Amino acid sequence: MSDEQQRGDNGSGSPASDDFPGKESGDRWTDGPEVAPQAKQQPLTGAQSEGVKSGGAKGDDAETLRERQRLAQLEMMDRWVGGVLTEQRRTRRWKLFFRLLLLAIVLTSVTAMLYRVFFAEPTASLPTQRHLALVEVHGVITSDSPANAERIIKGLNRAWSSRSAAAIVLHIDSPGGSPVQSQRIYAEIMRLRDQGDKPIIAVIEDIGASGAYYIASAADSIVASRASLVGSIGVIYAGFGFQEAINQIGVERRVMTAGENKAFLDPFQPLDDDVAQFWQGVLTQTHQQFIDDVKAGRGERLSDSPELFSGLVWSGEQALELGLVDELASLEQVARAQVGEADWENYTPSLDPFERLTRRFTQTAAEVLGLQRTQAPLRFQAQ
Description:
The chain is an alpha/beta fold. The chain is flat, with a radius of gyration of 49 Å. It has helices at about 5-10, 45-55, 60-120, 150-160, 180-195, 210-215, 245-250, 275-300, 315-320, 330-340, 355-370, and strands at about 130-140, 165-175, 175, 200-210, 220-225, 230, 315, 325-330, 345, 380. It folds into two domains: about 50-115, no CATH class; about 130-235 and about 270-380, Alpha-Beta Complex (2-enoyl-CoA Hydratase, Chain A, domain 1). GO terms for molecular function: serine-type peptidase activity. This is Signal peptide peptidase SppA.
C-alpha cells in the first residue's frame, strides 16, 4: 500500500481529512481515535444505579433515569396528597355528623318546649287521687326572680282548678322583697280564699319574713317549724351618703333635673330635714298598708303586743304565741292531716331555660356596662 493510501486510511478505515471539503488537517474535533461500535460499556454511576433500583432499565442513560425518578416522586406525592384529601373528607363528614346531631337536639328541645307551653295540658300527668297542691315561694320576691307574682299566681290558679287537690299549700322559704309583687300575690290569695272551694295553707320553712309573711297572712292558716323565722312586719329603705367623700377626692357631681325634688335620694347630695320627713311619710304609709292587710288576713288571731308590727322577727314558737302562725308542724305532717299520707304535687310553673339564660345574660351585661336595674327603693325584706 502506498504512502498516500496509508495517510488516507490512517490505519482505522476512516476517510482522510482531505476527502472532506472544508475540513483542515489537525482539527481537534475530528482528530484522534474513534470509539469502536462495540466498545466495552462503562460502569454505572451512583445516580444510574439508583435509577436501576427504582425501576429503570439497566441500559438507561442518566437523563432517562432522572426522568423516571421525577415521575416516581410525583407518583409518591400524588399518593400523599390523596391520603391527605381522604383524611380531610373523613374529618368533614364527622364534623357534619356532629353538627346535624347538635341541630337535631336543639330542634327537639325547642319543639318539646313549644309543645309544653302551647299544647300540653298542665295537669295532664297529675294523679287523680287526693293530694296537696304545692306552690313554691322560694327566694327574694321580685319581678325578675323565680319568686315573681306572675309565676306564683299562675301556679295558684292551676292548683285551684285541680279537682283532686285537697288543699293548696304555699311552700314559703323567703326573706321577702318587693311590696308591689307581694301585694299582687296577697290579693290573688284573698280572692281565691273568698271562694271557699278548698283551704289555702301557708307552710313556712326556714324563713317567712316581711313580704313573704305578707303573702302568708292571706292564707286560711299558717304553719311553721319551731325554728322558723317569722314576722319582720315593716318597710325598709337603705342608702348611703357620699357628699363628704366626693368633696375630699375633688370630684364634681353634675345632675340636671326638671323638678326641684327629682333627685332627692341622690347619695351625693345631703338629705335635709324636709326631704327626710317626706320620705319617712312614704315609708309610714306603706307600712300601714302592710299592717292593714295582715290584720285583714289574720283577724282576731293576732295578739295585741305593741311590738307585733315593729319589724322584729320571731322564732316559730314565739310567732305561735303572738298569733302570727296557727300551728307548729312540717309539710309532711300537713299532708298526712289533709290526705292521710305525705303526698303532694308541685303546681309551680317550671322556669323557661331560655328565658332564664337571657335574663342572666341581660343582668350580667347591665353590670358590666354599669347600668342599674330598675327596682323599687322600698322593700318588704328582712335584713
